[in-house]
Write a structure and sequence with these properties.
about 35% helix; five-stranded antiparallel sheet; alpha+beta; 12 helices
Length: about 260
Amino acid sequence: MTFAFQQAASLADAARAAAGNAEAKIIAGGQSLLGAIKLGLAAPEALIDISGLADLKGLRIDGGKVHIGAMTTHATVAASRELQQAIPALADLAGRIGDRQVRNRGTLGGSLANNDPAACYPAAVLGLGATVHTDRRSIAADDFFKGLYETALQPGEIISSVSFPIPEKAAWQKFKQPASRFSIVGVFIAKTAGGVRVAVTGAGSCVFRATAIEAALNSSWSAAAAQAVSISDEGLNNDLHGSAAYRAALIPVLAGRAVAAA
């Protein structure tokens, strides 16, 4: 296949190029998009490369929040000493994504925009109640993830950064598929000033909050309380890696381990 390629000079430049071509795709680290193109699942007319935009990279802590640029790689997030102090669970999650190649090429913004149903970062964003910032607006995590590979992003809208509130406690537990290292089930738990949030990835068509476990942990912050919750397998993934019932059983087990680790 053939396509046009443009290396954006700025976020505004990328946004203009994307707005002018409905068949164009933004490429960041390329760890999801390039694979899709090779498999014939995507056939963009143009690729707009934002990997060189330095102002979309980096991490800072300000006002009780961790702000991470969309083009920051997983490896950079995992290695950040500041993040390891502020939200160690987020650094832990980033350090267990894929393999070294994926961690050194893949980006926070690219992962969120793609919204793979088994990706790790969506669980952290939803579990921490983060805010996704784009070139147009700010979107709360609860409003961002819409369904299978679907987000609230409008055509041509580009993620610029994500701000994560620093929780009282948080932890990440992942039961991975050994070859891809995607989550068969992954659970991110955060104890915040507004209550407990529990986000689950890999189990369904999109990341979701386990509200029954949240209620149990708000009443009693303990591994036993999380593991005592029964999760329905209705609507959960059922494939060669695990049945819906298996995934339903894993969710409270991993939630309990996360509480114990937090």
